[in-house]
Amino acid sequence: MRTRVVKPDQIPSPRGAGRGSGRGARVAAAFLLITTASACEEVSHHDIGDEINILVRIRRPELVGPAIDRLARYRRSAIPQMETAMHTSAPPGRMHLISAFDKIGDGEAVPVLRHVAVFDITPEVREAAEHLLSRWATGGDGARAARAKAALDEIARKRAAGIGPMQFGDNGIPGVPSTVGAPEPVGADDKP
Predict the structure, then answer these.
(1) What are the φ and ψ backbone dihedral angles of 161, each rounded to 5 degrees?
(2) Domain boundaries, the chain
(3) Contact present, 93 and 124 (Cβ < 8 Å)
């Protein structure tokens, strides 16, 4: 029988045995967890955007109510995208978004509504935002009511100081863009 001679530097360490496969599995699991979590966020972001598009672009009243209901299910996470849409949509879309803010009912919408109530170029939209804040200020939710009352005080202060919307054309400085909202879309028609 032959004896095999093994040099000390050729002996595998028991501490290093199997480490490569365990680490690779952990890295793969972490990668899978991260990509799965971000994919879920991506889906809700797109879903929220789809519902907002129905409110601001499609001129079919029968789709508005269900879109507001679906958007309200996203609660607070829909507010940032709705705020962005408030700056770019036409007045009917902004009115639908205010209805969606009402349905969501979250106090995080108060700063958006305050800004719209002061700076929107359309009087009806400004009035709708202020009316919603007034309802919330007298409502039962303590934190939301307090924020809404503070927002109404700020609106009154800004209006007393002469701070308000910049206007287009005959209503103000020609060619100067507004700070919130957009006029009716150019070439808008009722295409579905």
Answers:
(1) -85, 0
(2) 28-171
(3) no
Q: What is the pLDDT of residues 125-163, one digit of tens each?
A: 999 999 999 999 998 769 999 999 999 999 999 999 888
Instruction: DSSP for 23-61, please give it.
Output: HHHHHHHHHHHHHHHHHHHHHHHHHHHHHHHHHHH---H
> Crossing angle, helix 110-119 and helix 79-88, to 10 degrees?
10
N-term to C-term CA, the chain = 89
Helices (H), the chain: 19-57, 61-72, 79-88, 91-104, 110-119, 123-137, 142-160
Tell me the two tokens of residue 95: 């009115």
The pTM assigned to this predicted structure is 0.68
What is the fold of 28-171?
A: 1.25.40
